[in-house]
Specification:
Layout: H1 2-13, H2 16-37, E1 40-52, H3 54-59, E2 62-64, H4 67-71, E3 74-82, H5 83-89, H6 92-95, E4 99-103, E5 117-126, E6 137-142, E7 145-165, E8 172-174, E9 183-189, H7 190-193, E10 198-204, E11 212-217, E12 219-221, E13 232-234, E14 237-242, E15 244-252, E16 257-258, E17 265-273, E18 276-281, H8 283-288, E19 291-292, E20 297-298, E21 308-312, H9 314-319, E22 323-324, E23 331-340, E24 344-349, E25 354-356, E26 362-366, E27 370-377, H10 384-387, E28 390-392, E29 399-404, E30 413-415, E31 420-427, H11 428-446
C-alpha cells in the first residue's frame, strides 16, 4: 500500500512545471484541431415574439391588445457558430428558448392620438445563454420590426351573472346558485370593454346528487357568446354554491291528545290531512326518515267553532335534517271528530235570528229560510229562544255574505255542527228607491184602460 501511495505522490509532485506546460499545449492543440475540423457555420432558426416591459406601458394607462397575435408571429434568425455549437443549439430544449423581444417602453405614445392605434416596433433576437463553452453570433434576422396595437387601459364595474350548467339525473331539486359577489371590476383595452355583453361565472353541476361548492372563474362574453380573452377581473375567481336536495315523502302519524273535551262530547277520532308531506334533504336522510309525529292536540281547545286544528310540522322536519318542499312550510290540519250524547236536530227559522253590529244607513235581509244544528248533552229539550241565535254584521259593507250563526249554549249541552246563515246587506237609499219603483209599477198596472170612440 505504501508503494502505491508513494507512486501517486511522486506523479503529482515531481516535474510539475513540465506537466502543466503539457496540459496548456494540449488545450491549444485541441482548439486548433476543433477550428480546423469544425469551421464556423451559419444556420437559421425560428424565434417567437414576446413583449417586454409591458408594465411600464400599463403605468401610463395603455395596453398591447394583440399579444396573442404576436405569440403566433415568427422571426427568422441566422446564427453563426461551430458545428457542435449549432447542433447543441438545435436541441428542442435550447431551440425553444430562441426568441425575439419587443420592448414596450420604447413606444412613443401621444395621449391625443385616437386609440386603438398601431405602432411599428423593432424586435431584438435573443439566444439562450450558458450552453457549455460554445459561443454564437447573430448574423441577421427578418423581419426587423413588427406592428403592434395599443389601446387605452380602462377599468369598469360590471354586474356578475351566476348560473349553473349540466343536468342532474333523478328526483332532485336544484336551487339557484348562491354567491356573495354581485359585481366585478373588469380591466382591459377600451375597445374590448366596449364589446362586453355580459360577465358570467358558470358552475358545473352535471350528475351532482348533493350541494355543489366550487371556485369558478369569471369570464366576459361578447354579443355572439364568444369569450373576450384580453380582460382581467377583480375578483377573477369566486366561490359559488348550488343547493341540491333529493325529493322524498314523509308519512304524518296521528298525533296523541291531551286535555279534556267539554261535557257530553265524546272523541270519535282524529283525521290528519295531508297524511304525507313532500320533503327535501340529502339522500341518506331521505332514505332513513319514514314518518314524523306532530305535536299533541289539546282537546280543551275544541269548541263549537273549532274542530279543525292546524299544526306546523316544519320544525319536526328540521329536527330530522329535512325541510318541506312547499315554500309556506309543512302545515297539517287535524280534524277532531266528536260525538254528542243525546244528540237531536233543531231547526232555527230566520225570524228567530237576531242581527247585531249593522252599520247605520244599511239594511240586512236574511236569505236563509232556516238553518239546522245538532244539539246534544242533557236529555231535556231546549227552546230556540234559549240559544239566542245571532249573526254579527260588525264592520260589514254592502254585499252578500255567509256568516256563522252565533249561539248561547246552555251548560251541559254541546253543538256538533256550526251553522252558517246567508245575508244580503244593502243601503237604505237603494232599498227605498227599489220600493218606490215597485209601487209605481204596481199603480201603473192597476189603472183601467180607456177606449177612444171615433165619431
Amino acid at each position: 500500500m505504501s508503494k502505491a501511495f508513494s507512486f501517486i505522490r511522486d506523479f503529482l509532485t515531481k516535474n510539475l512545471r513540465y506537466k502543466l506546460f503539457s496540459v496548456v499545449v494540449a488545450l491549444i492543440g485541441w482548439f486548433l484541431v476543433m477550428n480546423t475540423i469544425n469551421p464556423v457555420e451559419i444556420q437559421s432558426y425560428s424565434a417567437t415574439v414576446s413583449v417586454a416591459d409591458a408594465a411600464s406601458l400599463a403605468e401610463k394607462g395603455y395596453v398591447v391588445t394583440d399579444i396573442d397575435k404576436l405569440a403566433n408571429a415568427r422571426v427568422s434568425v441566422r446564427v453563426s457558430g461551430t458545428r457542435p455549437g449549432l447542433d447543441e443549439l438545435r436541441k428542442p430544449e435550447n431551440k425553444s428558448r430562441i426568441h425575439a423581444v419587443v420592448n414596450a417602453s420604447s413606444i412613443d405614445i401621444d395621449p391625443n392620438d385616437t386609440f386603438p392605434k398601431q405602432y411599428t416596433v423593432a424586435v431584438t433576437p435573443q439566444l439562450p445563454g450558458g450552453i457549455y463553452v460554445y459561443s454564437y453570433q447573430i448574423e441577421s434576422y427578418y423581419p426587423a420590426s413588427v406592428t403592434i396595437t395599443v389601446d387605452r387601459l380602462k377599468t369598469v364595474t360590471k354586474t356578475l351573472e351566476v348560473s349553473s350548467d349540466g343536468k342532474v339525473e333523478g328526483d332532485y331539486l336544484v336551487n339557484a346558485p348562491v354567491c356573495d359577489v354581485s359585481e366585478v371590476s373588469v380591466s382591459g383595452p377600451s375597445s374590448a370593454l366596449g364589446r362586453i355583453a355580459n360577465v358570467k361565472a358558470v358552475i358545473d353541476i352535471k350528475d351532482a346528487t348533493t350541494t355543489v361548492n366550487s371556485s369558478v372563474p369569471v369570464v366576459a362574453y361578447d354579443a355572439d357568446g364568444k369569450e373576450i380573452a384580453e380582460l382581467t377581473f377583480e375578483p377573477s375567481v369566486i366561490d359559488v354554491m348550488v343547493p341540491i336536495y333529493k325529493r322524498g315523502t314523509v308519512k304524518v302519524n296521528t298525533p296523541s291528545v291531551k286535555g279534556e273535551l267539554p261535557p257530553n262530547i265524546k272523541l270519535k277520532g282524529l283525521t290528519v290531512e295531508p297524511n304525507v308531506i313532500s320533503v327535501l334533504g340529502d339522500e341518506q336522510t331521505i332514505d332513513s326518515v319514514d314518518a314524523i309525529t306532530p305535536d299533541e292536540v289539546d282537546l280543551s281547545s275544541v269548541t263549537v267553532d273549532n274542530t279543525v286544528i292546524s299544526i306546523d310540522c316544519t320544525q319536526k322536519l328540521k329536527d330530522e335534517g329535512l325541510r318541506p318542499e312547499a315554500i309556506d312550510g309543512a302545515v297539517i290540519d287535524v280534524t277532531v271528530n266528536i260525538e254528542l250524547e243525546n244528540a237531536h236536530s233543531i231547526d232555527i227559522s230566520k225570524e228567530a235570528i237576531s242581527i247585531s253590529g249593522l252599520k247605520e244607513g244599511l239594511n240586512a235581509t236574511i236569505e236563509s229560510e232556516s238553518v239546522s244544528i245538532e244539539l246534544g248533552g242533557a236529555p231535556e229539550p231546549v227552546a230556540v229562544s234559549a240559544l239566542s241565535p245571532t249573526i254579527d254584521l260588525t264592520a260589514l259593507e254592502e254585499g252578500e255574505y255567509e256568516l256563522p250563526l252565533l249561539l248561547t249554549i246552555p251548560e251541559g249541552y254541546g253543538v256538533r255542527n256550526n251553522a252558517k246563515v246567508k245575508v244580503n246587506i244593502v243601503s237604505e237609499v237603494q232599498e227605498q228607491s227599489t220600493e218606490e219603483t215597485t209601487e209605481e209599477m204596481s199603480e201603473t198596472e192597476s189603472e183601467p184602460e180607456t177606449e177612444e170612440t171615433t165619431e
